[in-house]
Input
Amino acid sequence: MTQGNGTRDRGVLADVPASGPGGHAVVVGGGLAGVTTALALADAGMRVTLLEGRPRLGGLAFSFQRGDLTVDNGQHVFLRCCTAYRWFLDRIGGAALAPVQERLDVPVVDLDRAEGNRLGRLRRDALPVPLHLGRSLAAYPHLSLAERASVGRAALALKGLDPADPALDGQDFGSWLAAHGQSARAVEALWDLVGVATLNAVAGDASLGLAAMVFKTGLLSDPGAADIGWARVPLGELHDRLARKALDSAGVRTEVRTRVTSVSVNENGGWSVQVPGETLEADAVVLAVPQREAHDLLPEGALDAPEDLLRIGTAPILNIHVVYDRKVLATPFLTALGTPVQWVFDRTEASGLKEGQYLALSQSTAQNEIDEPVAVLRERYLPELERLLPRTRGAEVKDFFVTRERAATFAPAPGVGRLRPGARTKAPGLYLAGAWTATGWPATMESAVRSGVGAAAAALGALGRSRGLLPDFFEEAA
Ligand SMILES: Cc1cc2nc3c(=O)[nH]c(=O)nc-3n(C[C@H](O)[C@H](O)[C@H](O)COP(=O)(O)OP(=O)(O)OC[C@H]3O[C@@H](n4cnc5c(N)ncnc54)[C@H](O)[C@@H]3O)c2cc1C
Output
């Protein structure tokens, strides 16, 4: 069955000759890294085939139907400083569907107060860095005066770190924060509030290099860098439907439900890519699949230490979805302290819900809860929501369900940096992409897109082709 111009389901793979004037590239994996690679190669004039095992594009950032509700597998946000993902949105014609807030504004509710819930806000103003956060920090009610001053000093020290310094990769962020005078409360109420959501690890479990990357780029590079963006439509609308449309118009042949089983050098020195029942010949192959799958597909000798890929751990994210019969949350999102609830997002409009309100709780570092039965989570979280959002107390819960992503991100543990390979392998014509490769970023949509552009640049360079149309944000992988 053909879907759109060039997008097909498995079963009707066309004969794809290996060489042509532009050369033929096969991209394996239709997550954001693979879609980006395919677009970048096609934009540079190559003939491209994109192969995805599942029935849809988008990889870890997708949507599904639950009755009338369109549900995202997990709430995704990005920051204004995510220039690569924002380029991707532009490239697929989706930027207007995922706008960035005008100015960073995050409501933070503390439930651990004898006098009742207390609201604080993390906001920025128009002043230059680092003063843009000064006023908000000075008024932040969840820290003592001394803690606020100490956070300011630690932020300045962080600004002096080089995230790419290999020595930082081996250290943990928690110890660095403690050495820089950060109390347990400051870690909980500020550093982990941001770090858990962006790194998917608490400070003590996170590489200092990755943490420095996040905090320096997000909070200390440009006043607007941390303004938050999110899709006002289901993720599938962007990462599947619009991505397919862009791929089709770029002339990419996209095959879904097409799992690659092996990749090997053919007798002409090119590549053979095996899918059940067919073989595709290619001049370049990009493996844009998760690290374990990449390990299994890599031919012998392609990496010096392929077993390193298996040492890159994974970390889960749990999303808890609750549909109420009425509006219970007045802001698009908020985050909380003194409760297991982390971030709460209003999903009503994006999901197509016509009556009531649909909230999604995004629970990172969910190692202890990822396998809990729905009934247990319901019993734990509904009362917490009653504490957090008083209007839920009289409201009826129309639906409650969870989505579990056990390998949502790679674990950003100290030492992970030296395990992440660059785009090039030792096998000429074979490249790697994926949020887990050496982009310098944690496992994010930004990292996925950067890796895709980097892999395309490496492939085009090796084929002696112009990289003219490639965006300029990528750092070429070693
Ligand atoms: C619940 C959740 C919340 C998240 N929140 C955020 C967030 O707020 N902000 C943010 O920036 N990031 C977030 N992320 C991370 C982000 O989604 C990922 O980093 C990014 O989507 C990874 O893209 P990728 O292309 O590198 O990999 P993937 O999305 O894993 O894509 C790899 C693709 O390869 C396919 N594949 C595997 N093996 C084969 C094979 N043999 N043949 C063919 N195809 C194959 C897979 O089916 C998959 O589609 C979140 C992730 C999850 C799960």
Q: What stands out?
A: Confidence is low (pLDDT under 50) at residues 1-20. The chain has three domains: 4-60+234-312+415-477, 121-226, 314-410.
